[in-house]
Amino acid sequence: MNEAVDAPGRETQELQRAFDLFNQVSRALTLAYQELQGRVESLTAELAVANGELRRQYEAKEALSERLSLLLNALPAGVVVLDSSACVSEANPAALQLFGPAVVGAVWPLLVQTRLVATDAPGEWQFADRRLSIVESPLDSAGGRILLIHDVTAAHGLKVELERKQRLAAMGEMAAALAHQLRTPLATALLYSANLGRADLAEAARARFAEKTMAQLQRLERLIQEVLLFARGESIGRDVIPVGQLLGDAAQTVQPLFLEKNVAFRVDCRVGEMAVTGSRKALAGALVNLLENALQACVAGGQVMLEATHVDAQLCISVRDTGAGIAPEVRPRVFEPFFTTRGHGTGLGLAIALGVARAHGGTIKVNSIAGEGSEFIVLLPGDAAADRAD
After folding, report:
1. Cα distances (Å, whole numbers) of residue 22 to 19, 92, 95, 332
2. b/e 271-287 (16+ beta carbons within 10 angstroms → b)
3. Residue 147 and residue 98: Cα distance in Å, rounded?
4. CATH H-level, domain 236-390: superfamily
5. 36-85 confidence digits (pLDDT tens)
6. 237: confidence class by pLDDT, cuts 50, 70, 90
7. Which of 132, 190, 344, 376 is most buried by its number of CB atoms within 10 A?
8. CATH assignment of 78-151, given 3.30.450.20, 3.40.50.300, 3.20.70.20, 3.20.20.140?
């Protein structure tokens, strides 16, 4: 009987506990929802800020892109974009004006092969009647490239005209010195030739006077050739000459002169298969001028060394002698046209050699110590020298 009475009471208690548990869970869910709602509101605010920053960055990039586009369109230089297969994907108005609208989509190496002609200056090309300077830079990791193309026709023309005027100015300034140089061998030749007309002159003396007359006339011819070479300037070719062969050409020319004067002559080529691009005749002639200058500085028993080395991609050809050296006050003038310390010199050999080196994009340096000899070093830049072994 008591158990029957207690049963409804227990059910009521259990139901009450279930309601209490439900209320606790409900309050926990309410708190979790409120916390979640707060988090959502916080994330929404953060997202709005991030969206605003992204919008600001996008607008800034759009403005930058517009400015870059305007800049490319306004550039006087041509800009060509190549994709990874070397096809032209984009070109600015200046490039389109140069090459025409058909350049977009064209294969650039094929265009270079069919329409551009390499000039004697590295990085410069002849395109119809225009001279173009083309600089290439990588664009992305996929292999794209960008080409910056300058029309240097006017600048090249001004440079050529300036060089011509400088040579003419030098010729004008040196006219008096040239007249003196011509007058001396001419007067000597006239004197010897006048003796040839004497009826009482012995055959041996006649032959001697004829030989001396011919020597003076040859000296006049060489002087005139050097003057013309200096006035005309050097234009380099596109020959690819192994450095060893270049040194051999120069050595073969001067070897008899060294034997005649009893001066030792050695050649040392330490550049392997390196080759130089340019005019074989002009470069060999410049080396001959330097070697003759070194020979004239030596006495019998002296020595002259012709040596080729390279530092990175730069070719160095040195001519070293054991002569008396160059006086410090004379050294700044050794490359001046018509300047010479020898009575029978023309003063043009070193000037011509320097002109040849500069025409090939290089120069000549001088090292000299009085009483210990001199060294003339021809330096050619990497773009004028290439290792054929590669």
Report:
1. 5, 74, 79, 106
2. beebbbbbbbebbbbbb
3. 13
4. Histidine kinase-like ATPase, C-terminal domain (3.30.565.10)
5. 888 888 888 888 888 888 888 887 777 776 676 666 666 678 888 888 88
6. low
7. 376
8. 3.30.450.20
